[in-house]
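Appendix B: complex inputs.
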Amino acid sequence: MNLNELAIVQAAEGLQKKDFTSVELTSACLARIHERNKDINAFITVCDELAIEEAKKADMMIAKGEAKPLTGIPFAVKDAICTAGVRSTGAGKILDNYTPPYDATVIKKIRDQGGVLIGKNNCDAFGHGASNENSMYGPVKNPHDLSKVAGGSSGGSAAAVADNMCIYAIAEDTGGSIRQPASFCGVVGLRPSYGRNSRYGIMPMASSLDTVGPLTKTVEDMAIVMQEIAGRDPLDATTVAYDEPPHPALSRGARGQQPPLLAGEVGVRARVGVPKEYFEIEGIDPEVKEITIEKIKLLKDSGCEIIDVSLPHTKYAIAVYYIIVPCEDSSNMARLDGIRYGVRNTEGRTLYDMYARSRDLGFPEEVKRRILIGTYALSAGYYDAYYKKAQQVRTLIRKDFDDVFKQVDVLITPTSPFPAFGVGEKASDPLAMYLADVMLSPASVAGVPALSVPAGKTKAGLPVGIQIIGARMDEGLVMQVGHQLSF
Ligand code: GLN
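Resulting structure:
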C-alpha cells in the first residue's frame, strides 16, 4: 500500500512507530496530486514547499514526543476556508489573488498541532452548487469516472480524499456540500450540528445554515478530526459549549444505551427511523433505493430497531432553502466588490459602476442568480411573502425533526436520489441542480447533524452514499451508526 492511501489512524500509527516520516507521507500525497490533478482538478493551489516545511516541523514534534492526533498528517482544505499565508479564492475570480493573513479557527487548531496543509481544494464558487461546475477554475471530475461530476460544492475535497491525494479534508456544508460530494466520490462526510464547529474564517454563504466539517476515508477518522476541531470559539458567537464530545469512543451514547464502538464489533442498538418521504421522492434511482434498504436490513440484523416514521414538511425544505440561502447570500456576497482583491474592471464612470462591472467579471452565473433572487425576496413588499414565510416553514421543518427524535435515535435516508451525474448534464438547468439537494436540505434547515457514509456501488461502478441524521449535538451516535454501517 502506498503511504498516501493510508487513513489517519494508520498514518498516525506509522509516524509514531517511525515506520515512515511525515516528509515521506507528505511527499507521497504530493506525488499523487501531481500525477492526478490534471485530470481531476481537485486542487486550485498545491502547497509543495510549504507542506514539506510543515512536515519537517511535524517530524521534529514527533521525535520530541509532542505528537497530537493530527501531527504530521497531510490534509487539504476547501478554498472557501481561509488559510494563513495560502491563497484562498473561494473558487471565485473576485478573490483570485486573496491570501488571508489568518487561519480559520478549525484550521488553526489543526495546524497548531502540526497538521500539514497540502493544498486548497476546488469547489463551486463560494459554495454555490451541487456539481462543482460553478467553479471559476474549472469543474472537478469524479475519480471513479472522469465523465461524471464529483458533486458539490466541496467536490475538490471529496475527490482529493477519494483519490488519495491527501489523508483527509476540511470543507463546508450549507445545504449538502460535504455530504453530496462524499456520496458521489465514495468517502465519509459530516455536516455537524449548527454551532458545533467554529465558522470563523469560513467565507460565509448563508450564515444561518453554514457549517464546517471533515471529509475522511473512514468514520473512525471522522471521529478523530471532529474531536480535534469541535468546540466553543469566542470568535464565532453561534458556537456552543457542549460537554458531550463528538467522538463516539468518548461519547456516553444516546440516552445511555450505546456501548462504546471503536473498541470492537459490538452492534449499535439504536432506534432507527426510516422517513417515508425520502423514499417516495420522484426520480429516485432504483439502485440507490435498493442499496439503502439493504443497509437498513443490516442494521436490523445487528440489533437496531427499525421504525417507519414521517417528516411531513420534507417536501418544502428545498423551497425554503432556496429562499433563505439567496437572501442571506445577497448580503454576504455584498462584501466582495473587486476593490482590494481579485479581478477589477475600471471602465466604469462611477464607483458603483466599477463595483457592478467587477462583480460581473468576478462571480459565476449561479452566484449572480442568487444575489438577484435574494435581493428581490428581501425587498419591501416581498419580504413578508418570501423570507418571512420561508422562516415560518423552516420552524415547521425543525419541529418535524424535534418530534421524530422523541421516537427514534437516528434517521436513515439515501444521501442523494441518484449517483454522480454526467459533467454538463444539469449545468444549464439551475432548477434540476437545486433538486439534487432534496435529501440534504431538510437537515440543513433544521440545524441537525448528518453523516454520509459509503454504502455500496451501482452496477456501473459509481459510489452510493447513505445519510444518517441525528438530533442536535448527537454527532457521537450518528458516527456510531455510520461506523456500524461501514462493515
Ligand atoms: N447545493 C447547495 C447549494 O447550491 C449546496 C451549498 C452548500 O452546502 N455550500 O446551495
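Residues 384-407 form the longest helix (24 residues).
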